[in-house]
Automatic annotation (TrEMBL):
Family: Belongs to the peptidase U32 family.
Lineage: Bacteria, Bacillati, Bacillota, Erysipelotrichia, Erysipelotrichales
Top-level taxon of origin: Bacteria
One term of GO molecular function: peptidase activity
Domain Peptidase family U32 C-terminal: 318-399
Pfam families listed in its UniProt record: Peptidase_U32, Peptidase_U32_C
Name of the molecule in the record: Collagenase-like protease
GO biological process, one term: proteolysis
Keywords: Hydrolase, Protease
Signal peptide (UniProt feature, chain positions): none
PANTHER family: PEPTIDASE U32 FAMILY (PTHR30217), TRNA HYDROXYLATION PROTEIN P (PTHR30217:SF6)
Amino acid sequence: MNRAIELLAPAGDLARLKTAVRYGADAVYLGGKRFSLRSRASNFEIADIAEGVQFAREYGAHVHVTVNIIPHEEDFDGLNDYLRQLESTGVHAVIVASPSIVKRVKTVAPKLEVHLSTQMSSTNSLAVQFYRNLGADRVVLARECTMEQIRSLCAHSEAPIETFIHGGMCVNYSGRCTLSNAMTLRDANRGGCAQSCRWRYHLYQDSQKLSEDHLLFSMGSKDLMAADYVKDMIEAGVASLKIEGRMKSAYYIAVVVRAYRQLIDWLRAHPDEDPSAAVQAAQQELMRAENRPACTGFLAGIPGPQDHLYDNAPSRVTHDFLAQVLDYDPARGQALIEVRNHFEIGEMLEAFGPHLKNTPFVLETMEDEEGELVAVANKPLQRCWINAPAVFHPYDLIRRKERKL
Ligand code: SF4
């Protein structure tokens, strides 16, 4: 159990990359503006990637870049130059979904590790070995593997294995879907998925409408939340645990990365103890991010009706993100914060951070930088000094336990 396992987090932009690393990710993955699925989710030019690599290095973390389009003929234009640029910025690995690009990376930019994308639906050790022989340094398994299969795959594969532990699921076999193409002309395999499976549909049998207007039907799956499988995955020899969600907010990234970081660290420190309480604490914390309803995907076997997202109603948001800490003055016992959401004097708030446990407190004092009293924080990016019941650090976050209606 003392073997280090990588916690791999998504980064939709530089700010979220830094949040993921500060909150405990060992590595982050991001997409550039070309050659990447979810290219719409990316703000990363080469200069941003270079800055991200530098920042991650300060924390001993790695940066992986997706180069995972299913390439058509014209998609190879400029690819060699792009790969060389990634290599020269110090990117650790590229995530690739094409055998030809696996081979190309090895020739053109050999310092880059090649991680085979989940888009290739690797579900058995023979497939993993095939891609290993082709040059893949790691294989990201299909989300459609059970825990039993992951155990066997790790035992019978030379290539390090990466598995998903958290985030969205495709209701079709991951990435092998043309729903979005058919309905919106947006190609899911070229970064444009419109998530058509999660739209709300009327059900018909022939011409007879089965659904009622207030009970529409979604084809989506509940999200994956696999905190109760982290111990199994470590023991199975999985090399990396991956969180999905390059479109998610910085608050989501902070909460989810921190929850899995704390769970992994607890498991390493207490290898022989019952992990139930630590798993439960992680699950409770994960529910404080803005998740859809969650399940354990395929890990326990084929998902059942209870794992289907029938109406795509969001799960209850139990916490609102309110502000980020910029500074702390120990002499005043106050923190300088930057406001992101409406709150006011007298409310019960909660601060948390990479090194700050969940700290509830009542907001008793608030003043602007000129010393004027503030009763209500309601301007985006407004800066205020507030009372702090503990030592707060820059990049700690403040949230409210219950949604204010
Ligand atoms: S439409 Fe749904 S199932 Fe298809 S690729 Fe997009 S998320 Fe996956």
